[in-house]
Design goal:
Distance between the termini: 56 Å
Strand order of the largest sheet: 1-2-7-8-9-10-11
Largest sheet: 7 strands, mixed
Helix content: 25-40%
Number of helices: 12
Shape: elongated
């Protein structure tokens, strides 16, 4: 792919992966992604910021050749995950004088992942700077967005923040900068939900650090660049805040229709109470769409059939996933049906240990729901409405 000029002597030299549909064998990427690598030609030193994924080496090497690069002095590695570091061995083979600049945690990971020798590294500390002649890079150690090794690189004279995965999006586009903020907002929110949400507390701290920087451009490791940085920074402040919406998300699975009947009844009961409801049939639901809904919902109700004596595996998976991404949800409940018995509710309760939530009394019944069961669902809807009022979501 051709180098794309960002500013004088600063280029995007990454790869647009239009076809990628899954990350980490788990995370859907319906809009593809990009692996962003950046070239900076200082008056004295030439720097590459991050590389590209395994197997895309030739595209990066070709872009560097097209940009007339004869020598690379430094390769800044903001994060060791292989979609950013996978091409390092090939780049080092082509430019053997290059040194890798990174932090101590990232260095250790690169050594174990890619077998890069000790002498190739320059380890930097938080706020340390390096001069390229007429340009200066400041390094900001930013652990847990989303790995412990992450750091940002700030090009001071040009006011560009290379933010690594932070503030990025899985969004394949030929446009260098965001042109349709509405479209990219959804991709960025999906990315936040799938990757960043478990680290909400750390994200808030790192956003506070950015408030002290003068930023013209944010250049993340995935997705288009932001030449209106406030767009993505304000979105992250909203997503990572403590505020929730008057909304209930119901991921559910139903084997023979009993749980589905309960879910649909509860959905109507909640709607009558003036609460927005989002249903996700786990047989067909996009996991990314579910996670996006969790970013700011006040309540989650898991609809779970009983299979043998425990929760249906899809309900188990969804509950485990919710616990893993740790949304700021305030309330959780369970509804569903069983045949001859089991401990579905107890198992699901045991899966949400990472959530700081209040459990609302589940409605778990035998067989197909009857009038007495629907009354329990009415009561559950009323209870959720009361809880939402208590935290200021309703009058």
């Amino acid at each position: 792919m051709i180098p794309r000029a960002i500013k004088d002597d600063i280029y995007w030299v990454g790869f647009i992966d239009w076809d990628r549909r899954l990350f980490d064998s788990l995370i859907p990427t319906p809009h593809g992604t990009t692996y962003n690598s950046y070239l900076i030609k200082g008056s004295e030193k030439t720097v590459l910021i991050d590389t590209v994924d395994f197997g895309k080496d030739e595209f990066l090497l070709n872009a560097l050749e097209m940009a007339g690069v004869k020598k690379i002095d430094y390769i800044v590695t903001n994060h060791a995950e292989q979609d950013h570091s996978g091409s390092l061995p090939k780049i080092l083979a082509k430019y053997p004088d290059a040194k890798i600049i990174t932090n101590a945690k990232c260095k250790g990971l690169l050594e174990s992942f890619l077998f890069i020798p000790e002498e190739k590294f320059i380890v930097v500390e938080d706020n340390e700077e390096i001069s390229l002649g007429n340009k200066t890079i400041q390094f900001m150690i930013a652990p847990w967005v989303h790995w412990p090794d992450t750091m940002f690189s700030y090009l001071k004279e040009d006011k560009i923040l290379f933010s690594c995965d932070f503030l990025g999006s899985h969004h394949a586009t030929s446009e260098l900068f965001v042109s349709d903020e509405k479209e990219v907002y959804l991709s960025a929110k999906r990315y936040y939900a799938e990757i960043m949400m478990p680290f909400r507390t750390m994200i808030k701290k790192h956003l506070e650090r950015l408030d002290n920087l003068d930023i013209d451009i944010i250049a993340p490791s995935h997705g288009p660049l932001y030449n209106r940085p406030s767009f993505i920074i304000e979105a992250y402040k909203d997503w990572s805040s403590d505020s929730v919406k008057n909304q209930v998300v119901i991921p559910y699975v139903s084997m023979h229709g009993s749980t589905k009947a309960m879910v649909e009844y509860l959905s109507d009961a909640l709607s009558k109470e003036g609460i927005e409801v989002k249903l996700f049939n786990l047989e067909i639901a996009d996991a990314g769409e579910l996670l996006m809904a969790l970013v700011d919902t006040a309540t989650i109700v898991v609809g779970a059939s009983t299979m043998l004596v425990g929760p249906h595996p899809l309900a188990y998976y969804a509950t485990y996933l919710v616990n893993a991404v740790r949304p700021k949800t305030r309330f959780v409940s369970v509804i569903g049906s069983y045949g001859w018995g089991g401990n579905t509710v107890e198992v699901l309760k045991g899966l949400i240990s990472s959530l700081n939530v209040q459990l609302i009394e589940p409605v778990y019944i035998k067989g197909y729901p009857q009038d007495i069961d629907f009354k329990l669902l009415d009561k559950l809807a009323e209870e959720i409405n009361i809880k939402h009022k208590e935290i200021g979501l309703r009058r």
